[in-house]
């Protein structure tokens, strides 16, 4: 069955899905953008679990391209899957790392038993990845690796991002 990929313009913290993906930073201790919004709305349980994960497994940070899950606190979702996107670079092709964020998030989601997963536009904010390119990588990876999920929802915060992802789709 082909992967059911949907597109919405909105706020990822309001999505009624099994798991939401967080564009985290490697410290796992919160940041701006999506990360800030998830911790603000989800409450302190998420951060508490992130701290535990740091202490037990990721003392030097969650590596770029990897993903790990916590509770979703007060969010409508059951889990938050934290992944660290690559900072965009003109010198170096880091596309594989951006694809890896999507692939690893799907792998973690599958392990959890999540059927519906919402993704933000990873790396396109503070990490400056060109929108059209990030959209192509995200859509391609969800298509290739998203077998078996009921819905993979791309949640775009603004019109420009929405348009870029719609074009990629
Ligand atoms: P990164 O550090 O990976 O670039 P950011 O959080 O800075 O992550 O930005 C990623 C994308 O998420 C940007 O397009 C930004 O506009 C968008 N964004 C910010 N807040 C939210 C939110 N609450 N829900 C969905 N997308 C959001």
TrEMBL record:
Pfam families in the record: Macro
InterPro entries listed in its UniProt record: Macro_dom (IPR002589), Macro_dom-like (IPR043472)
Domain of life: Bacteria
SMART domains per the UniProt record, alphabetical: A1pp (SM00506)
Alphabetized Gene3D superfamilies for the sequence: Leucine Aminopeptidase, subunit E, domain 1
Domain Macro: 1-169
PANTHER family named in the record: GANGLIOSIDE INDUCED DIFFERENTIATION ASSOCIATED PROTEIN 2-RELATED, MACRO DOMAIN-CONTAINING PROTEIN
Protein name: O-acetyl-ADP-ribose deacetylase
């Amino acid at each position: 069955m082909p992967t059911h990929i949907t597109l919405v313009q909105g706020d990822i913290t309001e999505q009624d899905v099994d798991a939401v993906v967080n564009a985290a930073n490697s410290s796992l201790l919160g940041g701006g953008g999506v990360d800030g919004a998830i911790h603000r709305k989800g409450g302190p349980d998420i951060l508490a679990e992130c701290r535990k994960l740091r202490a037990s497994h990721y003392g030097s940070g969650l590596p770029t391209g990897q993903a790990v899950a916590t509770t979703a606190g007060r969010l409508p979702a059951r889990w938050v899957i934290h992944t660290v996107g690559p900072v965009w670079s003109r010198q170096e092709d880091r596309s594989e790392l951006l694809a890896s964020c999507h692939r690893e998030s799907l792998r973690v989601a599958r392990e959890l038993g999540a059927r519906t997963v919402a993704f933000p536009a990873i790396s396109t904010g503070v990490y400056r990845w060109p929108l059209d390119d990030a959209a192509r990588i995200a859509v391609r990876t969800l298509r290739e690796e998203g077998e078996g999920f009921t819905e993979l929802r791309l949640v775009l915060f603004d019109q420009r991002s929405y348009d870029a992802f719609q074009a990629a789709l």
